[in-house]
Amino acid sequence: MDTKRPTVPAAEEILGSYYPVLDHGFVALVDYMGSDEAVEQAARVSYGAGTRKVSQTRGLIRYLCLHRHTTPSEMVELKFHCAMPMFVARQWIRHRTASVNELSARYSLMPLLFYRPDAEHFALQSEANKQGREIGAPAEVYREAVERWDRLRTAAGEAYAWMLAEDVAREIARIDLPLSTYTQWYWKVDLHNLLHFLSLRVDPRAQWEIQEFARAIAGMVKRVAPLSYEAWVDYDLESRPLTRAERDVLSRLVEAGDDTLSARAGASVSAAEMKEAGLSPREVRELVEKLQSPERPDFELDLSRFRSAEEVAAEMYEAVPADFQ
Amino acid sequence: MDTKRPTVPAAEEILGSYYPVLDHGFVALVDYMGSDEAVEQAARVSYGAGTRKVSQTRGLIRYLCLHRHTTPSEMVELKFHCAMPMFVARQWIRHRTASVNELSARYSLMPLLFYRPDAEHFALQSEANKQGREIGAPAEVYREAVERWDRLRTAAGEAYAWMLAEDVAREIARIDLPLSTYTQWYWKVDLHNLLHFLSLRVDPRAQWEIQEFARAIAGMVKRVAPLSYEAWVDYDLESRPLTRAERDVLSRLVEAGDDTLSARAGASVSAAEMKEAGLSPREVRELVEKLQSPERPDFELDLSRFRSAEEVAAEMYEAVPADFQ
Amino acid sequence: MDTKRPTVPAAEEILGSYYPVLDHGFVALVDYMGSDEAVEQAARVSYGAGTRKVSQTRGLIRYLCLHRHTTPSEMVELKFHCAMPMFVARQWIRHRTASVNELSARYSLMPLLFYRPDAEHFALQSEANKQGREIGAPAEVYREAVERWDRLRTAAGEAYAWMLAEDVAREIARIDLPLSTYTQWYWKVDLHNLLHFLSLRVDPRAQWEIQEFARAIAGMVKRVAPLSYEAWVDYDLESRPLTRAERDVLSRLVEAGDDTLSARAGASVSAAEMKEAGLSPREVRELVEKLQSPERPDFELDLSRFRSAEEVAAEMYEAVPADFQ
Amino acid sequence: MDTKRPTVPAAEEILGSYYPVLDHGFVALVDYMGSDEAVEQAARVSYGAGTRKVSQTRGLIRYLCLHRHTTPSEMVELKFHCAMPMFVARQWIRHRTASVNELSARYSLMPLLFYRPDAEHFALQSEANKQGREIGAPAEVYREAVERWDRLRTAAGEAYAWMLAEDVAREIARIDLPLSTYTQWYWKVDLHNLLHFLSLRVDPRAQWEIQEFARAIAGMVKRVAPLSYEAWVDYDLESRPLTRAERDVLSRLVEAGDDTLSARAGASVSAAEMKEAGLSPREVRELVEKLQSPERPDFELDLSRFRSAEEVAAEMYEAVPADFQ
């Protein structure tokens, strides 16, 4: 259709197509409003008459991102259709500044689709990170886990279908579906809040399953607002806070000359000195990590993986208990 | 302890005590800030010098409530500790303007407590209300439901405990816990948003289980801010919107004289006329309901039911898989 | 440009054109996302598999509006460019759930445009409504008011230009500009929050100047989402809350038969009885007003009044102090 | 009064006392809910059964702050009564996640109090920082500015009083009051959003006048939640983001050994190399600033400056136009 609204060909290319995530989930970009130009336009209100046009869109957007002038990026809006296991949905919904319409299990019949971790991501409790996981679960443990999952889900699905057949209220019939059951929703969010979501959810400390969704969404943001995406990678995602004590430590190791930064000859800071500066042992480890030259992650989508809306809808429909399709 | 802050004896009486809801849930008021006087104080900034003190606190609060001047009621804040089944938590969390800290199943071990509907509230899918339920499920259906619930939950609990024993990451071990599993959180919200939550959640169209939580909370609000509570019942909860078409219909039936409202002699509006005025058959039924003199609901708490924090904590602790207590 | 996004011809027709409001203000719809169909699509996630398509878009949207299921209407987003006097901006900004980028008087030079009420809207303090106004200010008072406004604004503008010429910081130079000075911003908001804004701001109790802005915006909403607009007029704007006590009173005057509503023969409720039912004298007056058959307001835009972006920008630019253009 | 709620003596000491800011403004802490312990309690829900108590309150709060786990700090709430010039109020109100009740100039008479910058803070437009100011305005420019301010404000005050005497609606009478006029409000905000406000508003790039308010509030936060305050200074206020490119540059200058950080012998990075790494000249200057060992700012309140509520109220009252007191 024809529009006078700003339009982004790279976003149009994937609009309405469904990108698979995990075994039965998906993310689809279904609408968008604005792009990098909308960010600039909003920021330029702040400049108006009497100021010169000092920078191009890219420079301005990078400046805004670096200095946390985030309100202009609220001017871009994206809308997604997503399906995810309920335990992922429960993490996702904690991001409050967004609009959500979820499939209601009070009205609707639930497709009996359950998330089954693959062997690679079936992991042990991490020692280092109390909320994380570590690779290396024995194959036989995974095998038994799969058996237990299969049995439980079959029983839960049968109980659900049986209650529906007995005309039990749907809102009661669903209460023993497991957290691995897939749900779906429309999710609409502005670019500022979306990038904040991504920063937290592509992070290795987030649960791996929600990372997978966040990575797919990051690839879509890259298409809607590529300059904002790039600035986000450089100034937010791959940036690290340098705390007051860390600045103190680094100031002993680096000195600034005319246009040059130099290592101070022979300077070093010992563990004891770092402790005295206020750094805990964990903070020392984190500082070392911050001083690595980071990789620049990429969130490019594999276009060949996209599926059509019809195909996805059919899969959902077929997973509803048979007598109620 | 001693404080210069406004203090409400009726709230202090229940502060930190746990009110049981459903079979294993609870609500406890654990902190509050302000009361009806804080609402008045905030509204009076708007009156300040040059206006007379026209009304007492009650009159002012009723005026504010009737005319939807809601910002002064944001000045009162309440904090609760609550435990509820996850399917209730998923409805509750949709109220975005609140602060929540939930027990994390990534870090923590989940108490294996599950909600089991009692026979009275085990109901059939409603014909009239697509998201509701109706009484009257046969006893043998309930009996079989209980058996299925028991089997499923035992199996889910065993699988959870087995995975923990195998040192599987907690965030994976929990994915097949059913939606009936209890979780818990701290929930902090201002009075305006709390009353909005209550209006939607004590409503008969809400799922019965979340109504139970809302009724307990309403009883606590009544103690923290009794005048705001009373105004909410009269001007919000038991108020109904009278739509444009309904006002048109009523204007044909009622006339206003000097200080008197009278029925227009012989006036009536037929089904056909109501349709012509724009009312659908459902809207006609709703109009009839609006013209009933409403009961004044009460949300008085039964003080004898309160439990101590220690007792509740012990029950939670004992429900964690035995090897991990 | 070509897009796969939902497109609304009636909105495209006015997109990017500037609608004058007051003497130097404007509202322009500069972008939008979604329309009535997006509301339906979001609500239908709640119906999904297993439910029938019971209603057309119009019926569904009216049902959602009547029952305050507001989240689907958050799926539509609108973006405006607006200029308004600062005292209007200060009322407007109180609506928090929106994105705003305002012209910064710290960076930018302010156009010296001031709002001057016309004689018709120059009014006396209302007796009945403590925050309102009443018609009928004497002509000579208006004349003197205009003289005082002119003198003050000339002096304020000269002081501003003088400080700029002396290179005083802009953030200081502007502190004595009057509240009648025009500012401008981009304003982006979802349909749900926009309709709430309109309900409060087209209301006769809002200041007349902000009503003018709200009426222009209502005319734009009518073009973007006509069914949502119509439902808002019928079920929100022209609806009135019928309180608990009012329902009690009306139940004595009206009775429901089979599909018919009738006036109860000879029924009337006296002032004393209304007082006993809990209605204050003000509430009695308001009840009488609620029982009038309401007009259906219209917010049709006069297309001939639209101006081009260039023309408006030129007017703003020319109003900047001359030495700094 | 007696309460079971958590109580903080250092906060009680200043509760309800008014701290002067600028020439006629003030900030008063008028209520609070919770303290550092409430942050810990909320975070510990996330640990519950099965985790050890690994850290004391201080360590936990610092960990939460460093890793941006901000939701527990939403559990603390503070309420202030503040008076500030309207141009400050307009910056302040942009922080949306807060509750505000402002003196309404539609209902109330405005005290005729205006902010007059003192000579020290009357400054020139900054060259380096387009939104800032620089010291050094000539004394004679300041003298003339004061004269112009005095004339304008006298005229604006007289016009306001004249219109009130002519019974012009207050909402119109006030439209030519200057932005330097003081307004006042109640402001309630949770600790997380308050600290975010402080980070932006004690920053040297904020307008100096709002910095003054932020510094007074910071001193009050220090009394309500001292550990959260300290963590905020170390991990937020005096922290700086180290961007992807900056990490790259620093990795060439510093190396990590066993528990030791050392300057790499002879390493330096030239201007050309920094440009190649992606740093703009401005970014290079900012990096140098980040590598300074920062001062630890203090926001201690001078208790001798506090005034009583009665004294402040009397000053406000006397500033209302004389015929209307």
Give an overview in words.
The structure is a homotetramer of 325-residue chains. Chain A has 13 helices and 11 strands. Mean pLDDT of chain A is 93; it is low at 47-52. The first copy, chain A, has a 5-stranded antiparallel beta sheet with strand order 1-2-3-7-4. A two-stranded antiparallel sheet of chain A has the order 5-6. Chain A has a two-stranded antiparallel ribbon with strand order 9-10. The first copy, chain A, has helices spanning 9-14, 36-45, 57-66, 86-92, 139-165, 170-173, 191-201, 208-224, 226-237, 244-251, 271-276, 281-290, 309-318, and strands at residues 18-21, 25-33, 77-85, 99-102, 124-125, 133-134, 182-190, 240-242, 254-256, 261-263, 268-269. Chain A starts with 8 loop residues before the first helix and ends in a 7-residue tail after the last helix. Chain A has 325 residues and is of the alpha+beta class. In chain A, 42% of the residues lie in helices and 15% in strands. The longest helix of chain A has 27 residues, at 139-165. In chain A, a hairpin with a 7-residue loop joins strand 5 (124-125) and strand 6. Chains B and D meet through strand 2, helix 2, strand 4 and strand 7 of B and strand 2, helix 2, strand 4 and strand 7 of D.
